[in-house]
Amino acid sequence: MNLIFRMLWVLIRSLFCARIEDNRFVSEFSLHVLPNDIDINFHMNNGRYLTICDLNRVDIFARSGLLKAMFRRNWIPVIAEHTMTYKKPLGIFERYRVKTEVTHWDEKYFYMKHNFSKDERIAAEGTSKGCVYARGIGVVSPADAIAAVEQDRSK
What we know:
alpha+beta
């Protein structure tokens, strides 16, 4: 619940940003480290990085049409694995850029690369793999998820 305003900002922002075309799934934006992002060392908490990656994924879902396709079909996104390497701390109120890119997919998972930077220096970077899941059915292949987006666009 503590990221509800950022989530709303991402969803509203996605309405005005360019649609994702040609399966180039990339999300990038600037944020500030807020007081609710920090730990006892007064820098961004390691868990917050993973949550910010969720915001990038929501942006990708919204701008690609996958969010609409998932709602229509009662599908949910699931992260199966996530790793993050922390290189430089982000202090309170510092501005940083975060970028998430879907690099490829196979028959089950989408694979993503995450990058947090400040002043052109890498603060953290990581990878994740995720899938689209249909309750009662199981994993929806990325090819089928993309086909659903294309089907919805043609309506």
